Amino acid sequence: MALIVFAVLAAVALGAFLAARARARVRSGAAWHSGPVYHAVQALIWTLAPALLVLVLAAVFSDALWLQVMSAGLPEPIQALEPFRRQAFLSDVRLVGAGGLPMQIWTGELSGLLQSEAARSSRVQGLLDAAAAVAAVTLALLGGLIGVLQVRPGLRARNRVEAWIGGALFVCSAVAVLTTVGIVASLLFESLRFFQTVPVLDFLFGTQWSPQIAIRADQIGSSGAFGAVPLFVGTFLIMAIAMLVAAPIGLFSAIYLSEYASGASRAVIKPLLEILAGVPTVVYGFFAALTVGPALRGFFNGIGAQLLGGPLDSVGQYLLLVQNQMALVAGAVMGIMLIPFVSSLSDDIINAVPQSLRDGSYAMGATKSETVGRVLLPAALPGIAGALLLAVSRAIGETMIVTMAAGLAANLTLNPLDTVTTVTVQIVTLLTGDQEFNSPKTLAAFGLGLTLFVLTLCLNIVAQRIVQAYREQYD
């Protein structure tokens, strides 16, 4: 049904477009304000806008209308059910009416009523769909006719089309802005509920994180420990390790591909680098857990065995206890994941530097390395800083690699050989499973999300200030 409706609307719109353009071309005499294409586009808008509006409204209110019609004619046995069971029965009625299988097993009289009500549901849904389709096609025909009949020399079709385009762009911008406002509002609302239970200072400056003990009031230690400092320290530790890997390798790869590599080498190396960007993060997690983690553990355990019995015996004993899961493993693998991200963006930014700057540097007798270090990198620095900032945001938001390679222990440490966790991992952990939504344990996820949002916003502002300062110098 939907494909047929869209096909009919497309045919009507095409007909209105061609008819309006032909009408604008054959009319002669007075000077035309707008060209034939603008008249045709206006007829197209008159055809599609009302029809699509009807379809959108039908999709939004179809469920409510279906429920109202079905509830008005329910048999007495169904009306006698408890509200939640009646709702479950209606859900199964709609599912069976659409050709699916019921989620629950209904016995006795309800089993027979399920089939009869499913047939009625199918008829009701068919009538609703047919009404929406007829209304959309009718409005499309009327709108197309109006659009074609409006074609005349003095019609400011170009201005109207530009107004429609401006309105569409404004709606897209408004959706983006309102989405951001909605995200922030939801975080603020739920975070305020959390901070009514847990003091803000205890959350921001506390050094103990144990939300799992705050489930029931009768448990020992039920007040919980919601100090978020270990989580943010672990987040920035892993992010720093990742950037220490990704930033130099990605940037140097971009410089090589942009300035030193031949065309043949670039055609081979650049696609191979970008293949890494398409690898799912869970695969990186497996790589970290099964390859990098055991390799680094064996390396540090071997060093520890060599240090036993000497002046660094305590260090050796510690290195012998190093396990597969540690911040170094997660940061290193995350850095590998970010290499193509940094390399691709930096390569495009360096290539965007005007060739005249290179030619001027070579004309002054500078070598290629001097040109790269003293001309290209300073000129491309704002863009490179933006690329690194995007990589930092990606590293802060990564979850799967940290879960598989760094563990879930909230340790307050800067030692890369210890197990740590991050804010995003804890958010997933807090919201996973059958949890009571009003408990401090669950609401803590919103507090973490809001704090992380504020911190990343501050980082973005600082980075933008730095970029603007250097951009003013080289513009």
Summary of the model, kept short:
With 475 residues, this protein is mostly helical. The chain contains 17 helices and 2 strands.
Q: Could you please describe the fold and organization of this structure?
A:
The chain has 17 helices and two strands. It is mainly alpha-helical and 475 residues long. It has a two-stranded antiparallel sheet. The protein is flat, with a radius of gyration of 32 Å.
State the share of residues found in helices, binned by percent.
Answer: over 70%
Assembly state (oligomeric) = single chain
Kindly report the average pLDDT value.
Answer: 84
* Quantity of strands, as a count: 2
What share of the residues does DSSP label as strand, in percent? under 5%
How many helices? The count is: 17
Order of helices and strands: HHHHHHHEEHHHHHHHHHH
Taking Cα atoms only, what radius of gyration do you get, to the nearest Å? 32 Å
Quote the distance from N terminus to C terminus: 57 Å
> What structural class is derived from the secondary structure elements?
mainly alpha
Uncertain regions spanning at least 5 consecutive residues: 214-221
Strand order, largest beta sheet: 1-2
Q: What profile does the largest beta sheet have?
A: 2 strands, antiparallel
What shape does the CA trace take? flat
